[in-house]
Design brief:
The chain has a single domain, classed as Na+/H+ antiporter like fold (Up-down Bundle). The protein is about 70% helix and about 0% strand. It contains 13 helices and no strands. The longest helix has about 35 residues. The N and C termini lie far apart (about 60 Å). InterPro entries: BilAc:Na_symport/Acr3, Bilac:Na_transpt, Na+/solute_symporter_sf. It is found in: Membrane. GO terms for molecular function: bile acid:sodium symporter activity.
């Protein structure tokens, strides 16, 4: 692994930032506990995510390709574009525009290159988005992150390789592979023990939200000086989820895509809501041997996490008020905004056919059970 002899005090634009607070080296025991805590939280979140996936329906779709909703996969493709092409570029641009130090920029880059997580799935549910699309995008992005994340980090981190150690991409890929194991276990639990899977989803969702909050609290305990960092870090941590969400919704709203509003919301939230716990775990596990850099690496994700929670709850509250104001809050099973689809004749019929296929599959299940 190649390193340079210079420090991480410079910034990406070559200028010297104003002097800030000295980062106190974290306590090794706290760092070790922080590592295991993040691994446990990520495992719980990924296990819960796996428990939301229906292996039986996936098998049936593979056996009967005619039931596939092609527009659904258009949504997945657009989500991939926003997640791995648009957002890393946004993070890279913010790091340059706000003149981050090298390690702060790397922390921001890791966050912007991460896939979405359970938090985006929860927010999609609360905002009546397409939960199936959200979970699918989360799963696909998590799998593709094994290749896209090292690629994006290699592509964009070259601005900082003169100042800091080259990122150990192989360790990141191994870490992501270890995270994918709970997803597979969760799918199997859902397949064999559906009632248990529902409990795991509820517990995992709570753990996910509490995990982000607890990570924020632990970061204060480990290094309270993070709140005295320069204003530009605060601005970037606030702008990244906002810009990501707006761009995600904007790209998915292109008229020729004819995606329904619930699917646009799912794409927007998946793009704007990054898996902070995963980002922290990757940083902790990957850079554990570079303790002198950890505090600065974690500054951006630790500020990003509370902004993410506040913004997510604010968007949900505003959306719920809008539902009440427009009288669309009566049927929680209907995705708000469906009637305003870009092309009601095509999109509406496609959605109805998709629902009909699901209903038909459920009827087939009941008939099969009765015959048994």
């Amino acid at each position: 692994m190649m390193t340079q002899n210079t420090t991480a005090e410079g910034n990406v634009s070559g200028a010297t930032p104003p002097p800030g607070p000295r980062m106190v080296p974290p306590n090794p025991q706290l760092i070790e506990a922080f590592n295991w805590f993040n691994v446990a939280v990520v495992t719980a979140i990924m296990l819960a995510m796996g428990c939301t996936l229906k292996l039986r329906e996936l098998i049936r779709v593979l056996k009967q390709p005619s039931q596939i909703d092609r527009r659904f996969f258009v949504g997945v493709a657009i989500g991939f574009l926003c997640q791995f092409i648009v957002l890393p570029l946004v993070g890279f641009g913010l790091a340059h525009a706000l003149q981050y130090s090298s390690m702060t920029a790397m922390g921001a880059l890791v966050v912007s290159c991460c896939p979405g997580g359970t938090t985006s799935n929860l927010l999609t549910f609360w905002n009546r988005g397409d939960v199936a699309l959200s979970v699918t995008m989360t799963t696909v992005s998590t799998v593709l992150a094994m290749g896209m994340m090292p690629l994006n980090l290699w592509l964009y981190s070259r601005s900082w390789t003169q100042d800091v150690a080259v990122v150990p991409y192989k360790e990141i890929v191994v870490t992501l592979a270890m995270i994918l194991i709970p997803v597979t276990v969760g799918m199997l639990i859902k397949y064999w023990f559906e009632k248990l899977a529902k409990v795991i989803v509820m517990i995992g969702s709570v753990i996910g939200l509490l995990g982000i909050t607890t990570t924020f609290v632990l970061s204060v305990v480990i290094n309270p000086a993070m709140f005295k960092v320069s204003w530009n870090v605060w601005v970037g941590a606030l702008l990244l989820p906002i810009v990501g969400g707006v761009l995600g919704y904007g790209v998915s709203s292109a008229p020729f895509l004819r995606l329904s509003h619930p699917r646009r919301r799912a794409i927007a939230l998946e793009t704007g809501v990054q898996h902070v716990t995963l980002a922290v775990a990757i940083i902790q596990l990957t850079f554990a041997k570079k303790k002198q850099f950890l505090s600065e690496l974690l500054v951006f994700p630790m500020l990003y996490a509370p902004f993410l929670v506040v913004l997510g709850l604010a968007v949900t509250g505003i959306f719920r008020l809008w539902l009440v104001a427009t009288g669309q809050n009566k049927n929680p099973e209907t995705g708000a905004g469906d009637k305003f689809a870009d092309n009601p004749e095509n999109t509406g019929n496609l959605e109805k056919n998709g629902v009909a296929n699901i209903v038909a599959m459920e009827i087939d299940d009941e008939v099969h059970k009765n015959r048994s």
